[in-house]
Specification:
Distance between the termini: 40 Å
Structural class: mainly alpha
Strand content: under 5%
Number of domains: 1
Number of helices: 3
Number of strands: 0
Helix content: over 70%
Shape: elongated
Length: 50
């Protein structure tokens, strides 16, 4: 989990836990990634079912 956190967000889990600003930045990125993936999946899905 630590490696994934560092790879994805360029900070350790300890840094993530320490500051609210870090947590908010990470959660905003996660939310954006989730939204982008949902949009991409919807586009691919609509192309498949044409």
């Amino acid at each position: 989990m630590e490696k994934a956190m560092h790879h994805s967000h360029h900070m350790s889990y300890a840094e993530y836990e320490q500051k609210l600003v870090n947590r908010l930045e990470v959660e905003e990125r996660r939310e954006k990634d989730y939204h982008d993936c949902k949009v991409l999946a919807a586009e691919v899905n609509s192309n498949i079912h044409m």
